[in-house]
Structure formats: C-alpha cells, structure tokens
Write a structure and sequence with these properties.
six-stranded antiparallel β-sheet, extended, 1309 residues, 23 helices
Length: 1309
C-alpha cells in the first residue's frame, strides 16, 4: 500500500539552493507548523510536483516556483526535489526531479534537468536508477501510487489557492469531478463504440448492395450450370446411341466380311483344329495330376459312381438336416431349462413364504385379541370382554372407531375456533395500546431533541454573553494601549529622516561610480604591463609540463615495450598510431578467435550428434540381442534351434500330408473292400481279376481275408487320426514360431551392420573429440592473448594521450616564444600600477559597504514603522469591537431569557409525556402477559385433544394392520399345498429336460463324426468322377480333331452369297445414315456446351459460389458485430451509471457524517453533492455537479449563500469524503491551513473530527494525514489525541532561507 517516507527540498521558493532541507512523514499523523510566509505551503507544492509534475498556480509556468536568481545574487539556480515513497505493492522508490532557472538579459529561463526513479533490485538489494521523460514520469508515478493524477491534484495534495474548488463555478466543478470519476475517458470509449457502430452500419449497407449483385450473378451461374448439365446428359445419351449403332454397324460389317471370307477357303477351321489340340494337351496334363492326387481309384462304372455319389449326397443331406434338427431341439431344451429353473426357484421361494405366513397366523390372532381387549377397555366399548372374536365383531369394532374419530376431529376444530376468537380480541387491544405508545414515544423524542437544541442555543448565547462582558472590562486598557502605540509610532517617524539618508546614498553612489571607472582603467594598464612577465612565467610552466608528459609516456612505454613489440612486431614511429595498430591486431585476433569458436562449436555439435547416434546404435544392438535371446528361448522350448526350424516345419507338413493320404486311402479302401465283399458274394468271383471261385471254401477264404482287412480299418483310421491331430498340433506350434525364426534371421543379418556402425561412430567420435580437444587448447590460448591485448589498450590510450598533450605543449611553447619576441614600453612599472589598482579597489569596496549599511538601515526602519502601523490598526479594530459589545449584551440577555423559557416549557411537556408513557407501557405489558397466558392455555388444550386423537388413530391403525396381516396369512395357509405340488411338478419337468438334453448332445456328436467320414468319401468320389470326365473330354477332342482333319482333306467348292450380302449392305447403309444424323446433333449440343462454359469462365462467374459464401459470412458477421457493439454500449453505459450512483451515495453518506460531527451551527443541517444527468450526445450521459445545503428540509445551492468559514469547512469535508472513497490504495491526505476562516467552536469540532478519523483508520497500514497550519492551538487539540509525539516547525534563518526542524509536541503546551 502507498505511503510517503521522506522529502528533500533544495532551491525551491525560499529554500536554500546550497543545502537541502529534509522532512520525514509519520504514520498516522504528520504536523507542520510555521508562521505565514515561512514556506509551509511549499512542502505541499513539492509533494504535488514530485507526484504529478504540475507546478503551483500563478507561478509563471514554474519560474516563480524556483528560488529567484536575483535574490540569491547568482546567474543560475539549480533546484531539486526528492521524494521517497512506497509503491502500491510496498516497494521503496525514490523519485528525483531536478530543475534549473537561468537569469538571461531580460528574462528568466526554466529547464527540467533530470527526472529519475530509483528502485532496489529484490535479488541483489542493489540500487537501480532509471531516467524518464517528464511526461512518462508524470504518468508513471500515479500508477505506482495506485491513484489517478486528478485525485493527487484535487484531493490528496490540493494547493491552498485551489482548496475551495468544490464551491467554484459550475464548469470548473464539472471538470474536477469528471476527472476524478474518469468520465471523459469512458465517454470517449462510448463515442468510439458509437462511431464504430455507425461505420459498421455503413459497411452493412455496402455489403447488402454487393450481396444483391453477387446473388444475381450466382443465379445466372446456376442457370448456366443447369443448362450445361442437361446438355451433357444429352451428349452422353447421344454418345451411348452412337456407340450402340457402331456396335451394330461393326457386327453387320463383320458378317459381310465373314461371308466374303467363306469363299476364300476353310482357314478358320484349321485354326479351330489347332486350338482343339492345344486344349487336349492341357487336359492330358491335368488328368495325370488328378490321377496322382487320387487317394483310391474306383473300378465301378460311371453309372455306379454316379449312383454312389447321389447316395452320398442324400445321406450327407439327411445327416445335415438331422444335425440341424437336433441342434434346434437342444436350443429349445436349453431355453426351456432356463425357464424351468427360474420357475422352480420362484415356486420354492413362494412355498417357503406361504409356510412362514401360515406359522405366523396364530401369533397374529393372539396379538389382535389382546389389543382389542385393551382398546375396548380404554375407550369403554362393550361386547368385547371375552375372546375369541368373529370376523363380524372385528368389522363392527372398526366401524365404531371411524365414528369416534370424526367426533374427535370436530372437538379439535371447535377448540381451535374458540381459542382463535379470544386471541384476535386480545391482539386488537394490544395493537391499539402499542399504537398509543409509539405516538407518545415519537412526541417524547421530538421534545427531547427540541430541549437539546434549546440547551445548545442557551450555551452558545451564554458563551457569547461572557465574551462580551469580558470585553467591556478591557475597554480602558485597550484605549490606553491604542494611545501608547500612536505615540510610539509618531516618535519613530520623527526619528527617521528619510531625505537626509537619501542624500547620503546619492552622494556615495556618485563617488562609487568615479572609483569604479578608475579601477577599470588601472586594470587595463596592469593587464598590458603584466603580459610580458606572465608570458615568460607561462612559457616556463609549459616547458615543465612538457617534460612531465614526455617522462610519463616514455616510462609507461618502456614498461610495456616487450609486450607491444611481441604483438605489433615493432613500435610505430608515430605513437599516435599505437592504439589503431593495436586495435587492428585485436580485431584480427578476435576474428581468429571467432573462427576457432565456430569450429569448436561445430565440432562439439558433431560430437553431440555422434554421441546421440552411437547411443542410439548401442540401444538398437541391445534391443536386437534381447529379441534374439527371447526368440531363441521360444525355439528351445520345442527342442529345436533356429537352424532346424524350416526342416522341422517341412517334415511336419510332409507327415501331416502322409497321415491325411493314409486316412483317405484307408477310408476309400474300406468302401472298396465292402463293395468287393458284396460283389464276391453275389457273383462268386473276384471283382478285380474276374476269376470265378469253383469251390465254396475258396470263396470263404477270399471273403475271410477281405473281412480281416476290413476289421483292421477302424483301428488304423483311429490311430492315423490321432497321429494326424498330434502332427497338426506340432505343425501349428512350429508355424507359430516362424515369425520368431524370421526375426532371429533378420536381426542376425542386421547385427553385423549395427556393430559396424557402432565401430564407425566410435572412430568418428574419437576423431572429433580429439579435434575438440585441440581446438579448445587453441581457443584458450587465443583468448588469453586477446585478454592481454585488451589490457594493453588502456595503456596505449594513456601513452597516446600524453604524447598528444606533449605535441600540443610543443606547439604552444613555439607560439609563446614568438610572442615574447615583440617588445612593449610603459612609463610606470607593474608594481606601481598594481598598488594604485589595489588602493582604488579597496576604496570601492568601502563605499559599497557604506551603501549596504544605509540601505539595510532604511529597510529596518521602514519594516519597524510598518510593524507598528499594523499593530496600531489591530488595536484600534479591537477597541471598536469592544465598544460595540455593550449594545449586544442586552440583545443576548433577551435571547437567553426567551430560550430559557422555551426550554422550561418543553421540559414540563416532557414530564407529562413520560407520565403518560409510563401508564401506557404498564397497560401494554399487562396485555402482553394476558395474551401470552391465553395463547399458552389454548395451545395446551389443543395439544391435549390432538394428542388424544393421535393416540386413538395410532391404536386403530395398529388394529387394521393386524387384521390385514391375519387376512393375508389365512389366504396363504390355503395356497401352501398347491404351491408345494406345483414346485414338485416343475422339478420333475426340469429333470426330464436335462435327460433329453444329454441324450441329444450324444446324438449330435455321433452325427458330426458320420458327416466327417461321409465328406472324406465324397471327396474321393468327386476326384474319381473328375478323373473320368477328363478322360471322356480327351477322347471327345481326339474324335473331333480326326473329323476336322478328315473334312479339311476334301474340297467343298464355292458357295454363292450374293443375295445375303445385298440385304446386309442395305441394312449397313441405313444404320450409317442414322449414325451421321446423331453425330450432327451431338456437335450442336457440344457447341452450346462450349458457349455455356465460356460464359461461366467470365470473371463475374468465376468462384461465384465462394464469393457468395464469403459475402454472406461478412454480412452475417457484420450484423453480429453490430449487435455486439450495441450490447457493449449498453453494458458500459449501465456500468458507468451504476458506478457513478454507488460512488455518489457513498460520498454523500461520508459528507453527512463528517458535517454533522464537525459543524456546530444550527442553520445548516447537512450538505450534499448533487449530480444532474443530461443527455448531451445521443445516449451518452453527462453530469453537472453542485454542492447544496439542507436548511429546514429545503435544498439550496451553497455557492454564493454561505460564509467564508462555511465554505472552507464544506470544502474540507468534501475532500475528506473523496479521499475516503477513492484512495483505497493510497491513504495519504494533506490539509494546508484547514482552520482558515473557522471560528473557535468549529475549529475544535473539526479537530475532534480529524481525531476520530485517525482513530478509525489508524489500523490501516498506509494511512497518513499531513496537516499544515499556523494555528498552534489547533495543533494542541490534535496533539491531545496522542497520535503524534513530534511536529515539524518551518521557519526562516537570518539569510531568509526556509528551515525545517523537528520538535516535540509537548513543547507547544
């Protein structure tokens, strides 16, 4: 938070320019005391100038603000103001402003020398100073202090001449308040928004016009595009027709060509034979491959194979249908099972619940009997003494309870109505008594206020009366004092002979002019005579200086000669070239150093890059090795290595193929042997060799052998199937490891490359690191040499400076020697002329001293006469005032008597009012007690009936609940057996479902196995059929080839085709004509399409859609922006109005409190600031301000209607209120002569008000009140508050300069 610490003033107003005066500001109170003209107000002026850059009013643009050069006897005055303060964030800052005032020939010239801010570096604690332009500093300091410039000027550091600005003319007041509220800035913002809105409206109109043009062009573009689309469709349709016609024309043309070619021979048939031979060869190859892949070749006929295949198809179809049927049955059974399980669970739960309810029935009935007996006994209901009770008895009891409940409700309602009527009657009596009491209290307060005002008026009259009576006692002494002062003034005027002193001054001035003229003549003579001697002395001095300069640069040159020669090779003949040559060498060295640095950075970059590459390659190698290791572990799990895996997979695949072939062949053999058995039994012969069995024993042995083979088939198929599954599992596992094997192979191939890269990167890095090391050494060496050379620069500058001065001295010595060659002659010696000059100069000084003494005597006498005259005037005015007091005494006595009578009458009236009030208070208290008692009794009676009703209702509800539970339990007892039966039935159904489900699962497993076997057999049959069909096709092709070849060997002769050709040619010509007509139509459409495309290619149609889109976006965004600007305008204006209203309310509240606490007069109740809004430009509201006073409830403008004291007090109160409202971050307030024109009562009350403000805000860390006054009694009143131990006294020393001294406040007493 902002606070000010110290202020230094030097060369401002009456403050000495040689020695600055410092004042320290305390918290919460700083008091500055001094006589008029001592320089107190200058402190406020300096504070204001330091913070805002504004010079005091009427200071001739600041010239009168600086100490006058004429008064100081100086041609130039330098002034300075330093202010140390803490910024709004608590950082210490020193503001320095330096000024200069120069006396020209006829005018004064003021300059601003320096404006600087000094802060502290928070990290190092060092001081940091920065210069600013005045305008920048004027804006920066208010920001640092956390308040606006207008607040600093008009509230915090308000000048004494401007202190009454709240009661100035309307235009000045408006400007002040507008600046304080920053209204101008926000008004400009509103105007800027309004201007921007108008600009956007104009833009919106322009966009609207452009939009219409673009829309028209877009519509035309759409029309052109639509026509173009239609034409394109027509052209495409025509192209299709033309294409179709061309195909028909080509076909006709082909037929004509074919008919013509048929006459030339059978070339096409030869080509067909060649194709047929090629097809035969291809089929033979395919047939061989098919035979090779056969698992078992059947010997049955094609018809038998077809029948067998059809039978297989039917069987497979039947099995598949059976499989689907069984699967559907399984699904249905599973759904039924889930439903049955759920139903069984629900039936079990229901059965358990019903059993529990049946068991609870007895206990519920017993509980009900007990409750009915207790209830009927409690409420006196007869007929229910003996249990058990029938259903009719219980129902009758419940019906009786309903009528009893209605009676209780009616009783409660009657009681409430009766109590409410009594309470309303009591409230009416009480309200009437309270109204009478309020009226009496209001009359009492009004009477007490009147008595206080009358007492205050009596005290004022008594004080004035005492003052007048005391004044009458002093009339004689005052008359004697006036006569005495007149006599002293006349004696003083007689002693002071002004004409005689003026004659002495004129005589001395004449003598002074003559002496000064003689002094000037003798000075010229001494100067001429002393030229020769001074020239020689000067020449000797120059020679001594030349020798010193030469020794200096020679000594330094010899000391650093080796270093200079090592760097430059040899010293230059002209030492003025030493530094330039050295700088050239340094520049070369710096260039070399820069090159080495660049090379070093480049090599370091390469090293970093190689390190990154090396690290990446090493990580990649580790990753590859890790992957190889992991994959090798996977391979080791199956007992193989990476080199064996392909062989293992190949072997496993061969094994799987062999197993499959074996199973297929075995299955085919089984079918074949079964057929053989059937054929052998039927035909009694071997199906293969067709040999007949002559004997039955041979047939039996043959059949037994076949059956022996058939018996081994199932076992062989099962073993081979098991082996096949194992082989397939192994093959799958091996194939899964193929990616691992591939990875190992790939990474093993890539590893050498990576290792090679690592070696290459390591070699490159070692080479680069070696280069970096060498370059670093070279860089360090060059850097040291460069530093040594830079060290020599300063010495070279010293050598060159001394050598240059040596050459200049040589030149001066030569010129002086030339001057001395010319001789001069004079009749007097230099000593005589000098002695006469000194004598006349001494005489001139004595005359000046006499003149100064006379002038001081005249000034002292005149000041003494003026002082006596002023004192005499004051004594005479006091005497006139005392004489006029006698006429006022009688008037004050009459006023005192009237005021005393009015007070006595008001006091009697007050006693009567208090007596009446006491009676009415007693009556009110009695009525309140009666009302409370009545309400308590009513509440108690109502509560009793309500409790009884609730108890009755609870018991009835319990009985009803029991009856409901008994009824439910009875129903449950009848349904428990049915629930048990239903549960057992559902469980039995569920068991049957599970058995059927298991049976179907076994059945579908058998069907699946049969399908697998049938599919294998079917595949073998299909392969046999394919093999045989290929053989049939081969035979057919061979037959066709023989027939073609035979046919081609016989000449068919020529055939006439003229008639057919004629028909085809006519059709061809008709189609050609139609084709040409369509081509012409297509050309016309194409031409129209080109015209449309040309139109669309014009600038106004190019990118018309994008233009329309962009313009639409601009139009809409501009509309939205306009809408937003309107919202911003309204929101800002509303916020400004609300802010202004809140602040004005707050300010007037503080003004009212301060005025009533400070002003002791009875004519003005309070004052306020009125702000009248007026709509000046459009919607922006401007405010006119005025200060009004409230007199008897009437508002009057205060300007022109108040006394000087009221004006001062009102201005102070308004400034205090503004400071309280706007200075949240800056709690500083300076009051310059606040007691001006205030009478003693208002001075005392104002002091008390300030003390209260200090007490209230002393806890605020940044609160500082600075009071400047000449009224030491006012200081004593403030000092009693113990908020200040010291005060600052401003006075003038003997030289007339203002001095600031700190003194203890206790010394004022």
């Amino acid at each position: 938070m902002t606070s000010i610490d110290k202020l230094l003033i030097q060369g401002i107003r009456s403050f000495d320019q040689q020695k600055g005066q410092v004042i320290e500001f305390y918290k919460p109170l700083t008091i500055i005391v001094g006589q008029n003209g001592a320089g107190k107000t200058t402190i406020i002026e300096c504070l204001k100038y330091a913070c805002t850059g504004e010079v005091p009013p009427n200071s001739n643009k600041g010239q009168a603000f600086i100490h006058d050069p004429k008064v100081a006897g100086e041609r130039e005055i330098k002034a300075q103001i330093k202010l140390r303060f803490k910024s709004v964030n608590g950082k210490p800052i020193v503001c320095t402003r330096s000024l200069q005032l120069t006396q020209k020939a006829k005018t004064l010239e003021m300059k601003t020398l320096e404006s600087a801010l000094q802060t502290y570096n928070p990290a190092t604690g060092e001081k940091v100073s920065q210069s600013y332009r005045c305008a920048d500093m004027d804006n920066l300091i208010p920001e640092l202090m956390g308040v606006s410039k207008s607040i600093l000027e008009s509230v915090i550091f308000c000048h004494q001449e401007d202190s009454n600005w709240p009661l100035s003319e309307a235009s000045v007041l408006k400007k002040k308040f507008d600046d304080i509220f920053a209204s101008t800035r926000y008004t400009k913002a509103l105007e800027a928004i309004k201007k921007e809105k108008k600009s956007q409206n104009d833009l919106l109109k322009e966009y609207g016009l452009k939009m219409e043009t673009i829309k028209t062009n877009r519509d035309l573009s759409i029309q052109f595009k639509s026509d173009l689309k239609n034409l394109t469709e027509k052209v495409n349709q025509t192209d299709e027709e033309i294409k179709s016609l061309r195909e028909v024309i080509n076909q006709k043309e082909l037929k004509i060509t074919q008919l013509r070619k048929k006459q030339s021979g059978a070339q096409e048939e030869i080509q067909e034979v060649i194709k047929m031979k090629a097809t035969r060869a291809q089929l033979i190859d395919q047939n061989k491959q098919t035979h090779k892949e056969l698992a078992n070749e059947f010997t049955e006929s094609d018809e038998e194979l077809k029948q067998l295949s059809d039978r297989f198809v039917d069987e497979v179809k039947q099995l598949e249908e059976k499989e689907i049927k069984v699967s559907n049955q399984i699904k249905r059974l599973e759904q039924e099972k889930n439903g049955l399980e759920k139903k069984v669970q629900e039936a079990s739960e229901n059965f358990g619940r019903l059993q529990t309810m049946e068991e609870n029935l007895k206990s519920l009935v017993q509980d009900r009997e007990k409750r009915i007996q207790s209830f009927t006994k409690r409420y006196g209901i007869r007929g229910y003494e003996n249990a058990p009770y029938s259903v009719e008895q219980v129902s009758g009891l419940l019906e009786k309870t309903e009528s009893m409940m209605n009676q209780l409700r009616e009783s409660i309602l009657e009681t409430k109505n009766a109590n409410q009527q009594k309470n309303q009657e009591m409230e009416r009596k009480l309200d009437k008594s309270k109204e009478s009491q309020a009226q009496l209290n209001e009359r009492k307060r009004s009477t007490e206020k009147t008595i206080d005002q009358q007492k205050h008026k009596i005290n004022l009259i008594q004080k004035e009366l005492q003052e007048r009576e005391k004044s009458l006692l002093r009339i004689d002494s005052a008359t004697e004092e006036v006569a005495k002062e007149k006599q002293m003034l006349e004696d003083l005027q007689r002693k002071y002979n002004k004409e005689e002193i003026n004659q002495q001054i004129a005589k001395l001035n004449q003598e002074k002019n003559q002496t000064e003229k003689r002094v000037i003549e003798l000075a010229d003579l001494v100067k001429k005579l002393s030229v020769q001697s001074s020239k020689r002395a000067k020449l000797n001095v120059l020679k001594v200086e030349r020798s010193k300069k030469k020794d200096h640069y020679n000594h330094l040159l010899e000391a650093r000669r080796e270093e200079f020669e090592r760097i430059l090779g040899k010293l230059p003949d002209n030492l003025l070239e030493l530094k330039p040559q050295l700088e050239k060498s340094i520049q070369k060295k710096a260039s070399l150093l820069s090159e080495v640095r660049k090379s070093l950075e480049k090599e370091k970059g390469k090293s970093s890059e190689l390190s990154g590459k090396l690290q990446g390659a090493q990580q990649q190698m580790k990753k590859f090795e890790s992957e190889i290791s992991e994959n090798e572990k996977k391979l080791e799990k199956i007992g193989g290595s990476q080199g064996e895996l392909p062989d293992l997979i190949s072997k496993a695949e061969k094994n799987v193929e062999e197993k499959k072939k074996t199973i297929t062949m075995t299955q085919s053999a089984e079918v074949m042997y079964q057929n053989f058995v059937g054929l052998a039994e039927e035909g009694h012969e071997c199906p293969l060799c067709e040999r007949s069995f002559a004997k039955e024993n041979e047939l039996k042995r043959f059949l037994a052998k076949l059956k022996e083979v058939l018996d081994t088939v199932p076992k062989s198929i099962k073993e081979n199937s098991t082996g096949l599954k194992e082989s397939e599992v192994l093959l799958t596992e091996l194939k899964k490891l193929s990616p691992s094997w591939d990875t190992i192979q790939r990474l093993s191939k890539e590893l050498p490359d990576i290792q090679g890269k690592i070696s290459e990167f390591e070699n490159q890095k070692n080479s680069v690191d070696s280069s970096v090391k060498n370059l670093t050494k070279e860089f360090d060496k060059i850097s040291i040499e460069e530093r040594e050379m830079n060290d020599l620069i300063q010495d070279s500058e010293t050598i060159m400076r001394n050598y240059r001065e040596f050459l200049e001295l040589e030149k001066q010595i030569g010129e002086e020697e030339k001057v001395l060659m010319a001789s001069t002659s004079d009749s007097r010696t230099l000593e005589d002329a000098t002695a006469e000059y000194d004598e006349n100069q001494s005489k001139s000084n004595q005359i000046n001293e006499k003149l100064e003494t006379l002038r001081n005597e005249v000034q002292r006498k005149q000041e003494e006469i003026n002082s006596k005259t002023t004192l005499l005037n004051r004594k005479e005015a006091e005497l006139i005032k005392i004489k006029g007091s006698s006429s006022d005494i009688e008037r004050y006595k009459d006023e005192l008597k009237q005021a005393t009578n009015s007070k006595d009458q008001s006091e009697k009236e007050l006693i009567n009012l208090e007596s009446s009030l006491e009676k009415i208070v007693k009556e009110v208290n009695e009525l309140v007690q009666a009302r409370n008692k009545l309400q308590s009794e009513a509440a108690e009676s109502e509560s009793k009936i309500i409790n009884e009703k609730e108890a009755f209702q609870t018991k009835v509800a319990q009985l009803k609940d029991l009856e409901r539970q008994i009824e439910v339990s009875r129903k449950a007892s009848t349904g428990s057996k049915e629930a048990e039966k239903k549960k057992e039935e559902l469980f039995s159904t569920l068991q049957n479902n599970r058995s059927e489900h298991s049976r179907l699962l076994e059945q579908i497993s058998e069907i699946t196995e049969q399908l697998v076997a049938q599919k294998l057999t079917r595949r073998n049959l299909d392969d046999n059929k394919k093999y045989r069909s290929q053989l049939v096709e081969i035979k057919r092709l061979e037959t066709s080839i023989k027939e073609k070849e035979t046919k081609l060997g016989v000449s068919a002769g020529a055939v006439e085709f003229e008639e057919e050709l004629s028909v085809l040619q006519k059709e061809f010509q008709g189609l050609k004509t139609k084709h040409d007509r369509l081509t012409g139509r297509r050309s016309e459409n194409k031409e129209q399409m080109e015209k449309n495309q040309k139109e669309l290619g014009k600038p106004q149609y190019k990118a018309i859609d994008e233009e329309f889109k962009q313009m639409h976006i601009r139009l809409k965004t501009t509309e939205m922006a306009n809408h937003d600007l309107e919202k911003y305008y309204r929101a800002l204006e509303k916020a400004l109005l609300q802010y202004h209203s809140v602040k004005m309310t707050e300010i007037n509240k503080i003004i009212r409190e301060l005025w009533q606490a400070t002003y002791k007069g009875i004519d003005i109740e309070t004052i306020e600031i009125k702000s009248d809004g007026e709509n000046t430009t459009g919607r922006s509201t401007s405010y006119n301000y005025r200060v009004v006073m409230i007199k008897g409830g009437t508002e009057l403008d205060m300007r022109g209607r108040c006394s000087a004291g009221q004006k001062v007090l009102a201005s102070l109160v308004i400034r205090l209120a503004l400071a309280e409202t706007f200075c949240i971050n800056c709690g500083i307030l300076a009051l310059d002569e606040p007691t001006t024109n205030l009478d003693r009562h208002n001075v005392e009350s104002f002091a008390n008000a300030l003390v209260n403000i200090i007490e209230t805000r002393r806890q605020q860390s940044n609160f500082q009140l600075v009071i400047i006054t000449h009224d030491e009694e006012f200081v004593s009143l403030i000092g009693k508050s113990e908020h200040a131990d010291y005060y600052w006294r401003v006075s003038k020393d003997q030289a007339g300069h203002s001095v600031i001294e700190r003194q203890e406040i206790a010394d004022l007493a």
